[in-house]
Design goal:
- The structure holds two protein chains of two kinds.
- Chain A is mainly beta.
- Chain A has no helices and twelve strands.
- In chain A, strands 2, 5, 6, 10, 11 and 12 form a six-stranded mixed β-sheet that branches. In chain A, strands 3-9-8-7 form a four-stranded antiparallel β-sheet, with no helix packed on it. In chain A, strands 1-4 form a two-stranded antiparallel ribbon.
- Chain A is globular and about 45 Å long.
- Chain B is mainly beta.
- Chain B has no helices and eleven strands.
- Chain B starts with a strand and ends with a strand.
- The chains are: A mainly beta, B mainly beta.
- At the A-B interface, strand 5, strand 6, strand 10 and strand 11 of A face strand 4, strand 5, strand 9 and strand 10 of B.
């Protein structure tokens, strides 16, 4: 069965520090995609970054990078130089070739301390 | 439009009433999704449309829930005889099946059943 696991319900980080949010996944599909979304307190879901299962290099988008370790089935999000505006819920998600939907993890609440 | 548009943004209804939630996807996006998010929880998949057909409606929690999409564009999620456990944010998303099917979300419809 397909599954996404986020083991950190909450994290506190000092402003300007780097932070890593953990995500592991399980799928038997050879082709899949991994995503991270940010959900601020206002509620909207904001797409951050995408990694395809066949991509050779880790994805990067500005301060966001995805540490993709295929053998370990992990897709951790790294935020460099954290800012107060990074405080939000972060969801890891996966799409897979045998289904059309995207499944989500339970989320990690990130709080940035000034 | 520029983004996924949902209406109403907030809805308070009495138990037993029917409600309709509307989603207008990003122009040109052929895939449309409905998710549900209860307070403090992750995202629960409800239904997926490709064009006007729904190849995956496996997440609809009961026969009180239905959805349709017309003209390959606007979708309506209908909840009949609402119950208090239906209270949640209903999120609509759309994609163009690019970048591994990255989906972009609307701001959600907050439903409260009293």
């Amino acid at each position: 069965a397909q599954k996404i696991t986020q083991t950190q319900p909450g994290m506190f980080v000092q402003e300007k520090e780097a932070v890593t949010l953990d995500c592991t996944y399980d799928t038997s599909d050879p082709s899949y995609g991994l995503f991270w979304y940010k959900q601020p307190s206002s509620g909207e879901m904001i797409f951050l970054i995408y990694q395809g299962s066949y991509d050779q290099q880790n994805a990067t988008e500005g301060r966001y990078s995805l540490n993709f370790q295929k053998a370990r089935k992990s897709a951790n999000l790294v935020i460099s130089a954290s800012q107060l505006g990074d405080s939000a819920m972060y969801f890891c998600a996966m799409s897979y070739s045998s289904a059309s939907k995207i499944i989500f993890g339970s989320g990690t609440r990130l709080s940035i301390r000034p | 439009g520029a983004g996924v548009s949902q209406s109403p943004s907030n809805k308070v209804t009495e138990k037993g009433k029917d409600v309709e939630l509307r989603c207008d996807p990003i122009s040109g996006h052929t895939a449309l999704y409905w998710y549900r998010q209860s307070l403090g929880q992750g995202l629960e998949f409800l239904i997926y449309f490709q064009g006007n057909s729904a190849p995956d409606k496996s997440g609809l929690p009961s026969d009180r829930f239905s959805a349709e999409r017309t003209g390959g564009s606007v979708s309506t999620l209908t909840i009949q005889r609402t119950q208090q456990e239906d209270s949640a944010v209903y999120l609509c998303a759309s994609s163009h099946r690019e970048r591994g099917n990255t989906i972009y979300f609307g701001e959600g419809s907050w439903l409260t059943v009293v």
